[in-house]
Design goal:
18% strand, alpha/beta, 125 residues, four-stranded parallel beta sheet, Rossmann fold
């Protein structure tokens, strides 16, 4: 994960790392996905192929609240599940800015507390 302030070269760094990974594995397919487009990334992952996936600005320009958090967590879990299925043939790079990462972590923590309270009082319904 590459994290930094806006304009600090996160995307450029991700590109350089991806290039080095492709030099090490010339047969690897490079996939570059921008701005929280997990659906596109999931569609492009092929279980039998060596791939390098760059999710540039993976938290987007603004981290969504409520429904956006649920969608992000669902998409994140789906991506991690797919990555495990390909047995090391998928190399992932993520970039985001400091503020978005902090906001996302805070909002996901709030979501987890709400889910725990709902499960405690309402049986998860």
């Amino acid at each position: 994960m590459i994290v930094g302030n806006p304009g600090m070269g996160k995307s450029t760094t991700a590109g350089q790392i991806a290039l080095q990974l492709q030099i090490q594995t010339p047969s690897a397919e490079l996939i570059w996905v921008n701005d929280r487009n997990f659906d596109q990334a999931l569609q492009l992952i092929r279980p039998q192929a060596s791939q390098i996936l760059v999710l540039d600005d993976f938290l987007g320009a603004t981290f969504l609240h409520n429904v956006g958090i649920l969608a992000f967590e669902r998409d994140w879990q789906a991506l991690l599940f797919r990555a495990k299925q390909v047995n090391g043939r998928l190399k992932c790079l993520f970039s985001t800015c400091n503020q978005q990462l902090q906001l996302a972590m805070h909002n996901l923590d709030i979501l987890r507390v709400r889910v725990e309270v709902d499960e405690m009082f309402f049986g998860g319904c």
